[in-house]
Design brief:
350 residues; alpha/beta; 3 domains; BUG
């Protein structure tokens, strides 16, 4: 359309120039020049630099969980970097699959972005039918990693992992473990724990970590392998009792809580699980849009207020280099790793 307009206007310009050279008024030539600029203005406006309107970060879990907490932190920083509003929209259900499918169907224009997590790579094998594959999304950047933390309601009569195992074996199928949904890293941490310790712990899934923690605090459920950020405040306030973290090292926010590896339980000598979160765009998003988002995200993660919030909430900054290419490999590796675990455990969700 632009080239057709230009060709027509060029022809008009040539005719006008000839008329001017033959004595036509110069004023007519100036008017045509102004008309040319006005005619091309809509085309230039349509090519305005990204972004020129608000961006939406879609979270597949309810408000209050680790994914939501992180999304809101990063959204604020990216908004300030790009000078456009970035809103967080919670589209819950099916262990974040509903939110992921919303973004998979969205226009690949950079205005609808998915806050993906480890759950989406687990779901690839866990669910027999999915309408998306996170490996087909356009990776933007890894945002953070966090260990999970095994917490119990203070009324549960256990203070160590050894006592937790003994209590579970004394109450097979009755003692329970909540999660943010079937296939989440919270659920998978518990499933791995059950496999390794040969315990029968009842799984109680929720539509996000936030609602699960509410019921854990209220005593409706007994325990949870929660993401550290959504439970650490309750641990520090004495409202939940922490037994162990699932990462390879202790969390600075809970220095007195041992790792699973430090418990000395032989069955848990290789127990190491961390959750992770990252930004992904719909398949087919232009590389230049991805780059703009990626660069803004990395700048946002360096902002002092976000660095401090990470430290307070227990998020670990992603290891460098944090590029769309390295994040793509990360997603692929995690899909393969958890696919093997899901198949070994015989897990299925519909």
């Amino acid at each position: 359309m632009m080239f057709a307009q230009a060709k027509t206007l060029s022809k008009q310009w040539t005719n006008t120039r000839r008329q001017t050279m033959n004595g036509q008024p110069l004023r007519r030539m100036r008017i045509l020049a102004a008309v040319t600029c006005l005619a091309l203005a809509p085309t230039w406006a349509a090519q305005a630099a990204y972004p020129d309107r608000p961006i939406t970060f879609v979270v597949g879990y309810a408000a209050g969980g680790a994914t939501d907490i992180l999304a809101r932190l990063v959204a604020k920083g990216v908004s300030e970097e790009l000078r456009q509003p970035v809103v967080v929209e919670n589209r819950t259900g099916a262990n974040s699959n509903i939110g992921a499918e919303v973004v998979a169907r969205a226009q690949p224009d950079g205005y609808t972005i998915y806050v993906g997590s480890i759950a989406n790579t687990i779901n690839r094998t866990l669910y027999s039918k999915l309408n998306y594959d996170l490996r087909e999304f356009a990776p933007v950047a890894l945002l953070a990693t966090v260990p999970n933390i095994l917490v119990v309601n203070p009324k549960v009569p256990v203070k160590t992992v050894q006592e937790y195992i003994a209590h579970a074996k004394a109450n097979p199928g009755k003692f329970n473990c909540a999660s943010s949904g079937t296939g989440s890293s919270i659920n998978m941490s518990c499933e791995l724990f059950k496999m390794e310790t040969k315990t029968n712990i009842l799984h109680v899934p929720y539509r996000g970590s936030g609602p699960a923690v509410v019921d854990l605090l209220g005593g409706q459920v007994d325990s949870m392998f929660d993401n550290l950020p959504s439970s650490i405040g309750h641990v520090q306030a004495g409202k939940l009792r922490a037994l162990a973290v699932t990462g390879a090292k202790r969390a600075p926010q809970a220095p007195d809580v041992p790792t699973m590896l430090e418990t000395g339980i032989p069955e848990l000598k290789d127990f190491n699980v961390v959750s992770w979160f990252g930004l992904t765009a719909p398949p087919g998003t232009p590389p230049e849009v991805v780059k703009t988002l990626h660069d803004a995200t990395l700048r946002a993660l360096k902002r002092p207020e976000i660095v401090q919030a990470y430290e307070k909430n227990g998020f670990d900054a992603p290891p460098p280099p944090n590029t769309p290419q390295t994040f793509a490999k990360w997603i692929n590796d995690e899909t393969e790793r958890w696919g093997a675990v899901v198949r070994a455990a015989g897990l299925k969700a519909e």
